[in-house]
């Protein structure tokens, strides 16, 4: 199998390098990843990027979505699977998916009809300053095991006939349940607790979900991605990329009124 490996933390990140070493044992792996950190850029796309050869593959002066388009469209058009990660930090909940560069790379792949897996590492808060923390190689162990398991077992057996991509979130090994974490099919949480507080000309945006998770107050029901990973299981959300539509009579009436001048 030929795998295109990308991420949003940059080609020099530990998460990408350990995933490359694991996948390279069984697959042909071509790395096409951002030259520097592109976290939280979503599906931002550039008109033109520069590409430089790197010891792992190619470093792209662009976003994760750029990397997938450049890889599939030019550098390695014969790939079978896109793997994006491993991101340092979880990507959980419906409202996070569109912001995440890691997940957006997987979404971009699906428009090329290429299956994809986005992989992220959940790092518990507490005393950790997430902005300063650098996850160690060993802390990616469960994420690596989950990814290699999915590459070996979820491709070619019909999984991607029902899902365009898989969003994977794994705990660090010491948070896993038992010697190895269980793996659970989940759905993205719908709980949303963003707010904006104004202080003069400054407005601070805060996501209170993370604080609640750090305190052990998980507001999500069983079966959701956030609850699974906080409780030490690997969360696998099977997702589709195209936006869904529902034809209904009420909107037809609005359209008809517009045509009638109403």
TrEMBL record:
Alphabetically, the GO molecular function entries are: 5'-nucleotidase activity; metal ion binding; nucleotide binding
Q: How is the cofactor bound?
A: Binds 1 divalent metal cation per subunit.
- Going by the record, the broad EC class of this enzyme is hydrolase
The enzyme's E.C. designation? 3.1.3.5
Major place of residence: cytoplasm
* Catalytic activity line of the entry: a ribonucleoside 5'-phosphate + H2O = a ribonucleoside + phosphate
One GO CC term, this protein: cytoplasm
Q: What is this protein called?
A: 5'-nucleotidase SurE
At the highest ranks, the source species' classification is: Archaea, Methanobacteriati, Methanobacteriota, Stenosarchaea group, Halobacteria
